[in-house]
Every structure is written in structure tokens, then in C-alpha cells.
Amino acid sequence: MAFSRVFSEPPSKSIFKTFAVMFLSLLASLYFIHYLADRCGTCIPTEKRQTGPVEGLYAPEIKDVVSLRRKSLLHKWTSTRPLVMRRDNLISRLEEVDEELPELEGYKRTVLNSLDADWEAGGSYVTGQLSSLGEGSKKLPQAIIIGVKKGGTRALLEFLRVHPDIRAVGAEPHFFDRNYDNGLDWYRDLMPKTLEGQITMEKTPSYFVTREAPARIYAMSRDTKLIVVVRDPVTRAISDYTQTLSKKPDIPTFESLTFKNRTTGLIDTSWSAIQIGIYAKHLDNWLQYFPMEQILFVSGERLITDPAGELGRVQDFLGLKRIITDKHFYFNQTKGFPCLKKAEGSSKPHCLGKTKGRTHPNIDPEVVQRLRDFYRPFNMKFYQMTGRTFGWDD
Ligand SMILES: Nc1ncnc2c1ncn2[C@@H]1O[C@H](COP(=O)(O)OS(=O)(=O)O)[C@@H](OP(=O)(O)O)[C@H]1O
């Protein structure tokens, strides 16, 4: 990204890179083996699956001989290394690896595609919207969650997937920023199959700050509905920094990265963590192509305190019946976030993975205040443009 600051630490980067390549190779191999095992003639009928296949790897109810063999193989994997993780957790981690090392895009996509194909096969029977043969056809998305990074986009997508009239690709396609040269057929091919009346969706939070994205989405379809999950820009910046810190523990402090010059108090707006939160500026870019009525702003804060309320607004915006309601959520005290009572394709409660809801480091309150002062005028402009007050400056 144009605003990104590069931290040049060659030895740790090369170790990380080697680790990432090994990790992805291992995942690709495991999925290949799993895929073969799953496709063999005697595998568990889809209707016996209680969960999506990745979670299903743990399913205790595997009974027949082939399944037992598979179970023992999988048990070996899970007991030797914590590789078989929940699907959304795996997707989030892969996406974070990819963000640091875009050259691994091909590898990552192979793993993510098989994850989605697997999810599709396992989830389709349970949701009852598609047959296990995967009826329907792949379509370009009619609605896209375009941002913002660390706003709560994964939570929104996972919650929306519960709706029987929404089908979404789990992984971030990054089509309108990184993969545009692959063409629309490539993009369509990533999408799940849908039946008449179902909406195809994807989420890639970096679109919101990608200069070319509005024109490109407009060229695909001027009717595309756009959704932006926004969050207090100061908390968002800290969340963004926390994510980077989790992968590169040696980076400078948040406080030192915030300023161009700490003595003069000049904020470094070229740092992506700061730049992304200037929502009014990015929104201007989208309004050159799309009318305000075609963009829905979801409050990242309310998505946590009142998920059903925000989901109600999203379902209205998409022209769907309000099927996702209070009944679908419970507040998980341990996680500290709302979770689904039943995820798509599963009968089990489902919280987002460990990369969502990280503990943030303590930031010098003076620096936080300085950032609040910096964002205030941009926030006011944003409230004015959207006609909604998000309460970040109360
Ligand atoms: N239900 C639920 N469970 C867990 N986390 C939740 C939930 N709702 C919103 N959030 C917030 O989502 C933040 C991550 O945002 P994104 O999913 O947009 O991140 S990313 O851009 O895709 O990396 C993540 O940020 P951090 O708390 O900084 O980790 C969460 O605060």
C-alpha cells in the first residue's frame, strides 16, 4: 500500500519468510491429503457432518473403517502440531501472512480455495439452500464489504453468512487492488454458487483505501452495493499496530511511529495505521463513482454491543428479510465479544478466532489524546457526509 512504512530487518524477515513458506507448503500438503481422503468413494456422507469440514476433522462420530483410518491420520496431525485450526481462524492467519509477503499469493490462494471448496461441500447440505451437488451458478458479487481494515469486517461477514439468501467467499479475494489483472472470470470463479435470489458477497477491507477500486467496481457493475464497517480511528490504528506487532515484535513503539517529530507533535499521516482512519478523505474518492445511498456504513462499535441491530440495518440495505436477529447471538464472557449460537453449516456455537479481539498494548494517554485531536475534524466531516454520528468524539 502506498502509505505503508517499510521496517527493514533483513534477518527476521528472511526467517519469517522461510517459516511462512514452510507453513504454507505444509498446509497445502495437508489439504491435498485431506482432499483426497475426503473424495474417496467411502467417505462420510455429507448429511452426517455436523460442522464444516475443517471443524469436522474433530468430529467424534466418525464410524466406518475408512473414516477411522482418516481419523487416526488426522489425530496424528492434530496431536503433533496445532495445524488443524478452525476455518475462519486459518483464513485470518493466512490473510495476515499474505499481507506481509504478497509474493506468496499463489500458494495462499491454493489453500484458501480448497478451504472454501470444502466449506461449500460441508455447509451446503446443512444450510439446505444448495444440494450437496452444489446447484446454482457462480456470479459476480452484488454486494461487497469494502472496509475498513480492523473495523470488524470478518465479524460482519461471518454473521451475514448465517442468512440463507447470502453466499459469501470466505477468503479476501483482493481483486480490485492486487489481482485486477487476473480479470473478471478469475474473480467470478472464486465465488460460491448461488441460486436465483441469493446474493453473492465478498469482503476485502483494503478496497476502501485503494484509489483505483471505486472505478473498477463501477466498471464491473454500477449497481454494486457497498458496505463499510467503520470504527473509532484511534482504536482502529492501535488495532492495526497490534496486528503488525504480533508478527514483528521488534517494530518501534506505537508512540514513536505516530509522530513525524514527537517534539513538534506533527502526526505522521504517511503511516498507513494513521492514514486509513481519515475516512472522510477516502470516502470522497468513492463518491466520485457511487451515490451515498449505495454505501452503507456499519458501526464497528455497535457491531460488538448490538450485533443484531447492525445486522438488521445491513439486511434492510441488501433488500433481505430480517432473518438474523437477537436470537442468533450470545455474548461470550471469555472472548469478550458476541458470538454466533450456530455458525453457517454448523449446530455449534461459534466465536471468531484468536486473531480477532486481540489485547491492545497500553498507549501513552497523551499520544491517544493528540490523535483524538487530529482525527476530530475528519470525523466531523465524515459524520456530515454520512448523516450518522458514530460517537467517537463524545
Ligand atoms: N464478534 C466479534 N468477535 C471478535 N472480534 C470482533 C467481533 N466484532 C468485532 N470485532 C472486532 O473486529 C476486529 C478485527 O477487524 P477485521 O475483521 O475487520 O480485521 S481485518 O481487517 O480483517 O484484519 C477486532 O479487532 P481487535 O479487537 O483489535 O483484534 C475486533 O475488535
Automatic annotation (TrEMBL):
<keyword id="KW-0472">Membrane</keyword>
<keyword id="KW-0333">Golgi apparatus</keyword>
<feature type="binding site">
    <location>
        <begin position="150"/>
        <end position="154"/>
    </location>
    <ligand>
        <name>3'-phosphoadenylyl sulfate</name>
    </ligand>
</feature>
<feature type="binding site">
    <location>
        <position position="239"/>
    </location>
    <ligand>
        <name>3'-phosphoadenylyl sulfate</name>
    </ligand>
</feature>
<keyword id="KW-1133">Transmembrane helix</keyword>
<keyword id="KW-0808">Transferase</keyword>
<feature type="binding site">
    <location>
        <position position="231"/>
    </location>
    <ligand>
        <name>3'-phosphoadenylyl sulfate</name>
    </ligand>
</feature>
<dbReference type="GO" id="GO:0000139">
    <property type="term" value="C:Golgi membrane"/>
</dbReference>
<feature type="disulfide bond">
    <location>
        <begin position="339"/>
        <end position="351"/>
    </location>
</feature>
<feature type="domain" description="Sulfotransferase">
    <location>
        <begin position="141"/>
        <end position="376"/>
    </location>
</feature>
<comment type="similarity">
    <text>Belongs to the sulfotransferase 1 family.</text>
</comment>
<dbReference type="GO" id="GO:0008467">
    <property type="term" value="F:[heparan sulfate]-glucosamine 3-sulfotransferase activity"/>
</dbReference>
<keyword id="KW-0325">Glycoprotein</keyword>
<feature type="active site" description="For sulfotransferase activity">
    <location>
        <position position="150"/>
    </location>
</feature>
<feature type="binding site">
    <location>
        <begin position="356"/>
        <end position="360"/>
    </location>
    <ligand>
        <name>3'-phosphoadenylyl sulfate</name>
    </ligand>
</feature>
<keyword id="KW-0735">Signal-anchor</keyword>
<feature type="transmembrane region" description="Helical">
    <location>
        <begin position="15"/>
        <end position="37"/>
    </location>
</feature>
<keyword id="KW-1015">Disulfide bond</keyword>
<dbReference type="Pfam" id="PF00685">
    <property type="entry name" value="Sulfotransfer_1"/>
</dbReference>
<dbReference type="InterPro" id="IPR027417">
    <property type="entry name" value="P-loop_NTPase"/>
</dbReference>
<protein>
    <recommendedName>
        <fullName>Sulfotransferase</fullName>
        <ecNumber>2.8.2.-</ecNumber>
    </recommendedName>
</protein>
<dbReference type="InterPro" id="IPR037359">
    <property type="entry name" value="NST/OST"/>
</dbReference>
<keyword id="KW-0812">Transmembrane</keyword>
<dbReference type="InterPro" id="IPR000863">
    <property type="entry name" value="Sulfotransferase_dom"/>
</dbReference>
